Amino acid sequence: MDIKQEIKELREELTRANYEYYMLDAPTMSDYDFDHKLRRLEELEAAYPELITPDSPTQRVGGAVAEGFREVTHPVPLESLQDVFSMEELKEFDQRVMEAAGQLVYDVEPKVDGLSVALEYENGVFVRGATRGDGRVGEDVTQNLRTIHSIPLRLPEALPRLIVRGEVYMPKSVFHQLNEERELSGKPLFANPRNAAAGSLRQLDPKVAAKRRLNIQVFNIQLAEGKEFSTHTETLEYLESQRFRVIPHTLCRTIQEASERIMAIGDGREDFDFDIDGAVVKVNSLSDRELLGSTTKFPRWAAAYKYPPEKKTSKVVDIVVQVGRTGVLTPKAVIEPVRLAGTTVTNATLHNQDFIAEKDVRIGDTVLVQKAGEIIPEIVSVLKEHRPEGAVPYFLPERCPVCGAAVVRDEDGAALRCTGAECPAQLLRHIVHFASRDAMDIEGLGPANVENLIQAELIKTPGDLYSLQAADVAKLERMGKRSAQNLIDAIEKSRHNDLSRLLYAFGIRQVGQRAAQTLARQFGTLDALIETDEETLTEVEDIGEITAKNIVEWFSSQQSRHLIETLKAAGVNMESTAEPVGDGLAGLTFVLTGELSTMTRKEAGERIQMLGGKVSGSVSKKTSYVVAGEAAGSKLRKAQELGVPVLDEEELLAMLEK
Ligand code: AMP
Question: Given this model, what pLDDT does residue 58 score?
Fold first, then answer.
């Protein structure tokens, strides 16, 4: 078969498979075949790059990392909507419309809480996608939009030009999963799916955007060259025929019917895989729309009904405390069941001790709860006149309810955190951190495998890793004999790590990699460090009072001691293998800039520190030397300005060797 023909057929097959999989939920091609064919197409396109077209299924994540986004002027502006907050306001909207246009039919749709985008097709091929921006000028996010599988890259009918508008969102399930992963790796959480979707759509690297599994609901034709429609419904049906994912829509003959539909959408909001922040009522006839026109801000033919957050009273039956995977204690009020925004609610978040104190929530209290959007229900206020006699103020426990270890308040916030080195609630995170590359560097021990080991009850504390048996590990899901043995070997190897890795692996608050290295070098053995008091610790470089306190507290806890005993018994190295501490550079501060030829800047820094010198990131009068490598920039200039002596690589080496 000729190459061109084969490429064409592969594209058609893959495009159809994609549509069946993502849009119809009815795949007819196996994943295996799909991957296989996609690979074949990629190979052919790599060999014949001139045959690559933007609508090829290979181009969904093909884009390079962008430096920024180009501006796009929308040929048809992306208008905003007028809000209505009550049924009275909705009736007023209806009256205004009736006066201008007479008898009408409305279309009612959920208002997706995401990001508005315009998708542009030329001759049926997706050529450009842009954010709304200010409605007139947005940003070109074509590459990221291509990663959304429900956006067709080629349409069945090739109109010269078609622009459609839709709302990009992150499915609720993806949002929850993403936040869980972020929590585990210590990254800040996204506040809600909307923020997460916005962040994802503006990723400069399309590969990151692709992982976010965004989706879209299309709800308007902005422009269709060579096509006439008379109603909004017709346009939506056309979009469906062109394989877009189209917003659920219902025709209503009166405003009464429309308001019933709005209520039904609100009650059924849980069933959508996207968040909604209202419902949109639109005049269905396009000629009536023209008659009504627009104000400077929004069309007169549509209105967005915003649901008020529903509030109900209930009673606090109990206050329970959960320990999250990062050790944070979260108090929760168990309340008598109430129906709120379409679901039965049985508990409400109390956030933290400060929140409880501020609202003065007590067990037995009657409270007003609300559920705004999809967020966990919240206590708005306490109805103090209903407080039963004898109700006492509530305080979070001083010990972890899961493991009994002491609880400390975060340095920078209201959160209380469990300090237990072997706390079961934090086991997953502890082990993932323990095994991570910068800590004990145990290859093959990522979150999925750790989760499996915990599920199978093969490990209950990080120390248990060292007594794992290959035969047991091999029984786990997706674990052959071979990979089980590899894992055991990797664990075995980690026994010989330098003390600094172990110290970092403990996950003592505020003891990062650098502090761990300094401590290991300074004290030489774990035992020596354990015996050191707080005051002496603060004399160590980079160790402040809080860190010193954390270190002493951590080593004094029973769980930590148990962990250390287990590791010792397993033969884990507890000594620093760093060269003996020299002090030839004590009292000197270095700033490194530019590229060195015999070592990396990091290595140079380590060698300086090993000899008692300090390395800083910025040049000041206190800097003793600036070491300038190849292509040194502003730091070198600053050194010259301040009269700080400058060393080249050779001079530095001479100093290190002396
Ligand atoms: P606002 O941002 O409050 O002015 O509301 C207008 C926004 O709602 C627009 O940017 C649209 O992208 C968005 N929207 C979500 N769903 C719909 C829908 N079904 N019809 C029209 N606009 C919608």
Answer: 85
Measured in Å, residue 44 CA sits from the centre of ligand 1 at 42
- Contact status, residue 430 vs residue 421, Cβ threshold 8 Å: yes
**DSSP code string of 318-346:** EEEEEE-TTSBEEEEEEEEEEEETTEEEE
Ligand 1: atom nearest CA of 115 is 12
Which among 432, 398, 431, 408 is positioned nearest to 327, based on CA atoms? 408
Quick: pLDDT tens for 448-499.
899 899 999 999 999 999 999 999 999 988 888 999 999 999 999 999 999 9
Q: Is 203 in the pocket of ligand 1 (CB under 6 A)?
A: no
Strands (E), 113-232: 115-122, 125-131, 137-139, 161-169, 215-224
What pLDDT was estimated at residue 341? 65
For position 311, what pLDDT does the model report?
A: 84
Tokens matching residue 253: 């003959």
List active site positions.
111
pLDDT at position 483 is: 92
Give the closest residue (by CA) to ligand 1 atom 11. Answer: 116
d(Cα 525, Cα 581) in Å, to the nearest integer? 13
Nearest-CA residue for atom 23 of ligand 1: 111
Confidence grade of residue 399 (pLDDT, cut at 50, 70, 90): very high
